[in-house]
Amino acid sequence: MTDTNKMDMIGAINAALHDAMTEDETVLVLGEEVGDKQEGGVMGVTKGLSTKFGTDRVKSTPISEQAIIGAAIGAAVGGYKPVAEIMLMNFIAVPMDMIFNHAAKLRFMSGGQTNVPIVIRTMTGSGFSTGGQHSDYLEAWFAHTPGMKVVAPSNPDDAYGLMRSAIDDPDPVLFIEHLPSYWTPGEVTKQRIPIGKARVAREGTDITLVGHSLTVGQGLAAAEELAKDGISMEVIDLRSIAPWDKEAVLSSARKTGRVIVAHEAVKEHGIGAEIASVVNENLWGELKGPARRIGSAFCPVPFSKPLEEAFAPNAAKIGAMAKDMMG
Amino acid sequence: MSNYPKPDNETLLEIYRTANLIKQNDERIIKLMMAGKLVMPYYSPRGQEIIPSAVSASLEDDDYICTIYRGLHDMLAKGFPLDEMWAELAGRETGTCKGKGGPMHLTCPERGMMVTTGIVGSSMPIATGLGWAAKLDGKNRVSVANFGDGAANIGAFHESLNMAALYELPVIFICQNNRYAEHTSFDDSSKVETISIRAEGYGMPGVTVNGNDPDEMYGAAKVAIDRARAGEGPTLIEATTFRFNGHLLGESGAYMDKDLYAQAQADDPMPILRKRLVDEGIASEDEIAAIEADITARIDAAQKAAFDAPFPDVIELKRDVYAEEID
């Protein structure tokens, strides 16, 4: 590895977009402020694209989320591969009809005659005191929608690899960018990462922590602490939420007999419920206890710093639950 | 309107042929539904036949259209294969969508019939995206968005028209103002007297025409389509008309103004055009009767083939959700 391959998540996604647009002329980018005239995105993720590929392929749009996703769907049905940005995940509530009723369903409703190969990039994550409408995790809405795929990288290498796979994918993919991880550097190998394949971020034998985005790093930190007490925790980074890697999770669960699913979305009706259920249904009798869940508190994301910290999962909460499960 | 191009005799006869196909097809569907042989939600286009028949006279096979749940007239005018349409209405595996879409999601990409939506207001953003694709392709293709007066009050109308005008996309927005949005009259939904007046607010031409008049409708559509093909951007056409069978087949229609309804019936565009063809010597009574008989025979054949075909296998529940079959 050389230093040139070291980048943060912003750089990795930017590189993936550059590479995809260079290799395939049908790849398009659109969204609010994505053009260089608007500074290449509010966080600079799309920097350089409009200058390099022109404003026919890179559309810096009005604040029009329905038209952004609608235009992406139309262009996709017309043979292109648009990457649409919805700046923050909360704003995705605005074009939900376009995503849920159209992008996700057109392939099925047309009997396979049309498909919608779009990527919807969006960022989110608590930690910056942005309050109730700027930092929610809503991945369960989309994982619950037949026809949608959902990926959520936790590091720059996965961000590059998953973005390339998402653009290649013939179906709509929601690409969730964890805002607080944007500036954490890492090695980027520029290899595609298949959608639906998890990664064992740390091997362990006593307990399995299944997470994505924020909770992967928290799981690794918790595992480090638990090791001091002689508890060996395996950390699985889902990378893909829909479809998720059942094989990898069940295989780890079979080995450890204990599973915690942790995510930043509120616990109730979250993806942890689905994953824990599948683990419990498949491994009942083999487990040393039921699979359990950690999520955010069941309330809108609060503003005040102590409240925001108490709201979200953290390494200490994961560690405490692991110790409780070890008995 | 006097400076609009007029349809020649051959085109006028073709408009009648298409409109008669729409009318007979509608009457056959209603007959079968009333007999309990066809079960589906049905939004009859009776009374609106002239609009798409006159528009399609200036469209090519590879031009795109998007339409809505009340859209069988738009599809037939675009050349939707009758056999595949009937098989879809009957829920058969030979249907254009393999029986998975039904009347509200009929799709036929090879005739440019890209998306049919059951959501009011959702044809416009997607047609805008198809316009973007058409512009990128550089083949002078255009994209038509069909929608009703109700959809003109949805936010997506605003976003789409603004975006299409901003990017000078080859989109023709055709608002078929049939005086009612579900059960609410146009007067009860809109402070302004025409929808076309809104075009000025987006920086595009807007015109209101009598959609039931083949000369006006053909002329306005041709001007807009030629303008789009020439790269001069979108147009909003408001085509006034009336739906004879209310919103959803089977409703009471009690909300409709009786005088307005009676006047619309008296102004039924179908017998008017038929009489005009004879009076102006464009076609003889015998020639028109032969055209109508030929259409009847085509519908007979399509209907029979549809009901003779098998229903789809339940394996279809796993297909076309994604490109890869669900295991």
From TrEMBL, chain A:
Entry cofactors? thiamine diphosphate
UniProt superkingdom: Bacteria
Where does the Transketolase-like pyrimidine-binding domain lie? Answer: 7-184
Q: What class of enzyme is it?
A: oxidoreductase
InterPro entries (UniProt xref) = THDP-binding, Transketo_C/PFOR_II, Transketolase-like_Pyr-bd, Transketolase_C
Q: Give a GO molecular function annotation for the protein.
A: pyruvate dehydrogenase (acetyl-transferring) activity
Matching Pfam families, A to Z?
Transket_pyr, Transketolase_C
Going by the UniProt record, its keywords in alphabetical order are: Oxidoreductase, Pyruvate, Thiamine pyrophosphate
> Which residue ranges traverse the bilayer?
none
Q: What is its EC number?
A: 1.2.4.1
**SUPFAM superfamilies, per this entry?**
Thiamin diphosphate-binding fold (THDP-binding) (SSF52518), TK C-terminal domain-like (SSF52922)
Q: What is the recorded name of this protein?
A: Pyruvate dehydrogenase E1 component beta subunit
Annotated source species: Novosphingobium marinum
Automatic annotation (TrEMBL), chain B:
Q: Name one GO biological process term.
A: pyruvate decarboxylation to acetyl-CoA
GO MF terms here are: pyruvate dehydrogenase (acetyl-transferring) activity
Q: Which cofactor does it need?
A: thiamine diphosphate
Transmembrane stretches in the record are none
Write the Enzyme Commission number(s) for this entry. Answer: 1.2.4.1
**What region holds the Dehydrogenase E1 component domain?**
23-313
Q: Which UniProt keywords apply?
A: Oxidoreductase, Pyruvate, Thiamine pyrophosphate
Q: Which InterPro entries match?
A: DH_E1, PDH_E1_Alpha_Subunit, THDP-binding
- What function does the entry list? The pyruvate dehydrogenase complex catalyzes the overall conversion of pyruvate to acetyl-CoA and CO(2). It contains multiple copies of three enzymatic components: pyruvate dehydrogenase (E1), dihydrolipoamide acetyltransferase (E2) and lipoamide dehydrogenase (E3).
Q: What is this protein called?
A: Pyruvate dehydrogenase E1 component alpha subunit
